[in-house]
Amino acid sequence: MQNEDVWLVVPLYDEAAVIADVVGQARSVFPKIVCVDDGSRDDSADRAEQAGAAVVRHPVNLGQGAALQTGFEFALGDPTMRYVVTYDADGQHQIHDVEVMVERVRQGDVRVVFGSRFLDERTEASALKKLVLRAAVAYTNVTTGTRLTDAHNGLRVLERDVVARLDITQNRMAHASEIVSQIGSMRFDGAKVAYAEEPVHILYTDYSKAKGQSLWNAVNILAELIWR
Amino acid sequence: MKQLGIQLLLVLGTLAVAWRLLAGSGQRTQALRRLGLLALAAFAIWSIFFPDVWNGLARRVGIGRGADLILYGLVVAFFGFVVTTFKRFRAMETRYTRLARRIALDEAPSAAEHVKSTATPDTLAGEIPPSPSVKAADAD
Asked: Torsion-angle region of residue B126: left (phi > 0), alpha (psi -120 to 50) or beta?
């Protein structure tokens, strides 16, 4: 079977309505999936388990950043793992995008592939949302010395060595910028980490819109970044 | 022009807070903070018996009343308190997260175990055929 060396890390919080479908679809291509249940109040964790994912349960709610780090440490426990994919539980990511990103990283010239909503026109977001996301990426680029078009996308492919060095401490929303920042300052034999971006299509369904973070959260992210 | 005194004082106070923010919490910083607190307490007691000392101080830095000086001082002190509390809270959250993560990972089967338990005969083919000789080889 293909992609035995890839682990999907899925932070999971109150997604019982969709998680079984998300895991089921993803497993047809990527057999190894770990859902990190972040203290869900519904039966998300059981459903993910029934759908065939490995489930790690946080004893209390810690935040999405903490869940990602837990998933990284879990995946590092599999010696055959070469790549980790961070993947959202709410079904707004397309598994086909992940296949393209994994193919990209397998070419071997980059260690990290970021998904970007702004490399093509497929993703439909409101003008205000686009403005806020662009402001966020501009801030991240200035503070981390990277050049990305979309820093707050949940889809990423990370090589094992990069995963082993990541240490996310921003439990709440600022973890996306923290990941970029840590990758930006990582050095392998004195060389920066090579990365690439691939266009991804985010499906803003009614479900994900209802669950998604409001734009007010941009203020919170900024505050968390400044006073870290 | 008389306000220059208090402006200078407030700027210095804010800078001190900012410095504390950057300097971290070494033994020396902690000792200095405690000495400062002790000195402040001593001064407070002294000013209980001689309330006019605040007015004198205030006039020297260019503010009308001692009460105003205390208020300004409190603003700076409160800001410093907010910053230190925030930092301490963050540090505590980080430790607490690591603890919770350790528990979560210990309670779940490891990634390698999970792979073994969900492996289909198809994926196992060629890897671990169910023969005793290979099992023995597996053991070492």
From this structure: left
Q: What pLDDT does A133 receive? A: 74
Q: With 80 as the cut, is the pLDDT of residue A111 above it?
A: yes
The DSSP secondary-structure symbol of A182 reads H
A128 CB burial (10 A radius; 0-12, 13-18, 19+): exposed
Nearest CA among B45, B22, B71, B104 for reference residue A39: B104
Is residue A158 domain-resident? yes
How far, in Å, CA of B68 to CA of B62, rounded? Answer: 11
Determine, yes or no, domain membership for A1. Answer: no
Domain containing residue A39: 6-226
Full-model pTM = 0.78
Per the CB < 8 Å rule, is B111 touching A57?
no
Contact (CB<8Å) A81/B122: no
The number of folded domains in chain A is 1
Domain boundaries, chain B: 4-116
> Is A160 a residue whose pLDDT tops 90?
yes
A81 CB neighbours in chain B (<8 A) are 111
Query: How many CB atoms are closer than 10 A to CB B112?
Result: 13
Q: Cβ A54–B123 below 8 Å, yes or no? A: no
pLDDT of A11-56, one tens digit each? Answer: 999 999 999 999 999 999 999 999 999 999 999 999 999 999 999 9
Residue A183 sits in a domain whose CATH number is 3.90.550.10
Distance CA B139, CA A142 (A): 53
DSSP string, B34-101: HHHHHHHHHHHHHHHH-THHHHHHHHHHT-S-HHHHHHHHHHHHHHHHHHHHHHHHHHHHHHHHHHHH
Question: Does A129 reside within a domain?
Answer: yes
Taking the alpha carbons of A132, A144, B17, B80 in that order, is the dihedral positive or negative? positive
Distance from CA of B59 to the nearest CA of A (A): 36
Note the ipTM here.
Answer: 0.84
Per-residue pLDDT of B9-43, as tens digits, reads 777 877 776 666 555 567 777 787 788 888 888 88
Q: Looking at beta carbons, which residues of chain B come within 8 Å of A66? A: 97, 100-101
**In angstroms, what separates the C-alpha of B94 from chain A's closest C-alpha?**
6
